[in-house]
Design a protein that fits this description.
With 350 residues, the chain is mainly beta. The N terminus and C terminus are likely disordered.
Amino acid sequence: STGVRLCGMAVISLTAALLAMAVLPRAGGASEAEILGLFYDSTHGPGWGDSTGWRGDDHPCPTSGSTWYQSSWFGVWCNSTSTANLSLSNNSLSGTLPPDLASLTHLTIIDLHMNPLSGPVPSALAGLTGLQTLRLDRASLTGTIPSQLSSITSLQKLRLNQNYFLSGTVPSEISSLTGLQTLDAYINSLSGTLPPELSSLTRLQQMGLDTNFISGTIPEEVIHMGQLQNLYVSSNSLSGTIPVKLSNLRGLAIVHLFSNHFSGTVPSEFSSVSTLEVLALGGNHLSGLLPSALTSLTRLYALGFGANSFSGSIPERISNPVSYTHLRAHETPEHLVCRLLLEKKKKTKI
């Protein structure tokens, strides 16, 4: 039975000991089955798209010694007798996420994206010190990004995008996640400035913070993000000039800066970023000439520059076919965004 406890038993018979091992008591005496049961109840399990095995089998991970196998509980993967992966994306989960999830201390993956959940991102998840992937995107969550998540130093992918009403600032404490490779929090209601401390994320490959209310400038410290490939900060309220030092990031492939308040000129140094594929600058207050050296970028296939105050003409000589995108008559910046997406020749998100 999943109600068996170890604590308070002075003498345990062999039979009772084996039963206690089967239900794997956790912190506070709750077994993994009980913790997942609380999760099931809190997210309205009877209404899930698929709840096979839940509230049926005694234990989700009964096989000792086996590594990484699929449980009879839908969406659960195991490592030996511990729950290691909870993946229930697009499965009609609703309700709130219980803090009890933090008691599943062997979790490495939580993927609950595309579910109509509610409530905040539980700060208690900070106790999952072995977690590598946390996907709570498109989950209708509210509140703020908990600064406590900075305790999950094993985290590699953090996706909180498209929750719409996730507000507050980007916590500077996230800089402690030095193994982070993907940080996605786009299409939310985040505000404040970009913390310069984010420069500590030296393994970050993608930063997606577009379509928020972020203001201020792009910190020059971003040059320390040596592995950054995709920078998405469009559709915010960023201002100042485009940092020349962005060109020091020699792995940059996609730079989305459109629909902000950037001013000044386009740094000619971008022409030295040979990996650059997309440079979207439309809908700002940029001026001067478009650097002709950009035409030497053989991987560049999309250059957006409309709705600015550039002078001169479009550089004629190009080394590779480039989709020059700009605002046309009666076209809004939002239409430009849609057209940029349509004109892309390949998927750009990691």
